[in-house]
Every structure is written in structure tokens, then in C-alpha cells.
Amino acid sequence: MLVLKHYIYSNKTQNNNFRIMKNCFIFIVSLLFFRITSAVAQRPTNIPYDTEPVRFFESTSNIVIYIVIPLIIVLIYFIWRRKIRKEEEARKDEKKTGE
Fold this sequence. Notes:
Helix content is 80%, strand content 0%. It is mostly helical. It starts with a helix and ends with a helix.
């Protein structure tokens, strides 16, 4: 009797897992389908658009926006990471001397 209950329970969980996988597959396929169709449907047809690359050195605002600000952000990130690394090393040295 116990074996039969276990078989029924395992069969139910297998059916439940199959149903979950089936629903996930349907969800992913429908998501991809609607994502592709919405991207194509939203593309403007009568609006002219420029395909030329950005001229960086044409004005000082372009230089600041596209070159200087990203460089500053990258430098700040590396300085911040170095500070965190030094703090972690200080904590490790503190733990070693405390033991």
C-alpha cells in the first residue's frame, strides 16, 4: 500500500513538473514571438533618419559628452574599486593580527 501511495505521489509530481515545463515553454515562445512582432510594428516608415556617424570633434559639447564624461566615469569606477580592495585587505590584516 505504501509503495502504491509513493508511486501515485511521484507520478503526480512528474505530471506537475511536465505541466510547469510545458507552460514555461509556451510562455517563452509567445514572449519571443510578440517581442519580435512588436519591434517590427513600431519601426517608423516615413520618418527620415541619419545614418552618419557622430562627429566627435565638431563641437566642444560633443567632446565633453562623448569622450570626457565617459572617461571620468571609468576613472571614478577604478578609484572606487581600489578603495574597496584596500579596505578589504585592511580588514583581513586586522583579523589576522586579532587572532
